[in-house]
Structure formats: C-alpha cells, structure tokens
C-alpha cells in the first residue's frame, strides 16, 4: 500500500514539474534591449536626405508625418546619404528617367512615383495607391555632390537626345521601336 501511494505521489510530482517547466519555457521573457523589433511591411517608401540638407525633403517629411497621423499609415523612410542600399534602390528606381527631382515617394504595390515636392492631396492619393495624374516636368533638384553631372543633357534638345539614344540601340531594339511608332501612328489615325 505504501508503495502504491509513493508511486502516485511520484507521478503527481513529475506532472507538476513538467507543467511548471512547460509554462516557464513558453513564457520566457526576453529583455527589451535584446529583442529585435522587426520592421513591418509597408508599401510606401520615402527616399530622403538628412534633415537640413535639402528644404524640399524637409517639407515633404512634414507632409508625410501629418499624413501618417491623419490616415494611420506608416511610410518607410530611406536616407540615401546614410544608407548605401537605399541609394542603390533609389538609383534603380530612377533609372532611365532623365529628369527626376528629389525627394522621391514610391508605392511598391501600385508602382506609383511622386518626384519632388508635392501637395498634400497628391501625397494622400499616392498613399492610397490611386492612379496619379500625369504631371508636367518640374525643375530638377541636384543632389549635393552631383553638380557637374547631367549638364550636357540639359543643353541638348529632345531630338538630339533621342538621336543619341537611337545610336545606342541594338538592331532588334531599333526595329521594335519603329514598330511601336507605326502602331501609335495607326492608332492616332483611327481616332
């Protein structure tokens, strides 16, 4: 009899220890300074420079902060002067765009871009992923350290620039471009 009760007591003690251990393992608290806060995904990117470097970037920062509070959204800020990966991504996004003022707002899901200083309504539409209206080209803001670059392009007119770009095309690309022009002209004639 004594043996059976000690066996029950031993099983009960084992179950209690196992339960305590399981609860201790699942509720282990990690100190706040060790935890890494994972950045949550947001489709909204804002390419900027440090405060005080460029007035357009500072004004756009204020617009975005107000919009974040108003609409309860989050915009990921990428500083291209402090983060080389952000600069590479920025350069990739503006690749092929001859006149791309700074700062840049980019929506990953709708692929919409807002170049330069924009008004609050345009930024609000951008944040919601709406189709943005085509805007006329604005004056170009040159980033610090890039003063000498791009001056040749401003001096050329569009026809010279197009001819220069045509010279760089491969024969297949040139035929494709000519076919696109023909289709566009046919489409205009049908209207």
Secondary structure: elements and pairs:
Elements: H1 2-26, E1 44-48, H2 55-71, E2 76-79, H3 84-93, E3 104-107, E4 113-115, H4 120-127, H5 151-155, H6 158-167, H7 171-190
How would you describe this protein?
The chain is α+β, with helices and mostly antiparallel strands and 191 residues long. It has 7 helices and 4 strands; from the N terminus they run αβαβαββαααα. Strand 1, helix 2 (55-71) and strand 2 (76-79) form a beta-alpha-beta unit. The mean pLDDT is 77.
Summed up:
By secondary structure, the chain is α+β, with helices and mostly antiparallel strands. It is built from seven helices and four strands.
How far the N terminus sits from the C terminus, by CA atoms, comes to 103 Å
Rg from Cα = 29 Å
> What percentage of amino acids are in beta strands?
5-15%
Helical element count? 7
Counted beta strands: 4
Roughly how much helix do the residues carry, as a percent range? 40-55%
Structural class: alpha+beta
Gross morphology: elongated
SSE order in H/E notation?
A: HEHEHEEHHHH
Strand order of the largest sheet: 2-1-3-4
Low-confidence runs: none
* Overall average pLDDT: 77
Largest sheet: 4 strands, mixed
Notable characteristics:
single chain; 191 residues; alpha+beta; four-stranded mixed β-sheet; 4 strands; 50% helix; elongated
């Amino acid at each position: 009899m004594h043996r059976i009760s000690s066996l029950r007591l031993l099983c009960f003690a084992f179950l209690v220890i196992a339960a305590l251990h399981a609860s201790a393992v699942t509720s282990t608290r990690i100190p706040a300074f060790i935890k890494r806060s994972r950045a949550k995904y947001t489709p909204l990117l804002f390419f900027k420079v440090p405060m005080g470097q460029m007035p357009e970037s500072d004004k756009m920062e204020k617009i975005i902060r107000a919009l974040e509070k108003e609409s309860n959204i989050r915009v990921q800020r990428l500083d291209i002067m402090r983060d080389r990966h952000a600069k590479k991504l920025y350069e990739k996004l503006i690749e092929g765009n001859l006149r791309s003022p700074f700062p840049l707002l980019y929506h990953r899901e709708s692929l919409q871009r807002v170049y330069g200083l924009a008004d609050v309504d345009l930024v609000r539409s951008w944040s919601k992923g709406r189709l943005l209206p085509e805007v006329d080209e604005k004056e170009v803001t040159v980033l610090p350290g890039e003063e000498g670059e791009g001056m040749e392009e401003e001096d050329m007119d569009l026809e010279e620039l197009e001819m220069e770009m045509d010279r760089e095309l491969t024969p297949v690309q040139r035929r494709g471009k000519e076919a696109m022009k023909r289709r566009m002209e046919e489409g205009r004639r049908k209207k």
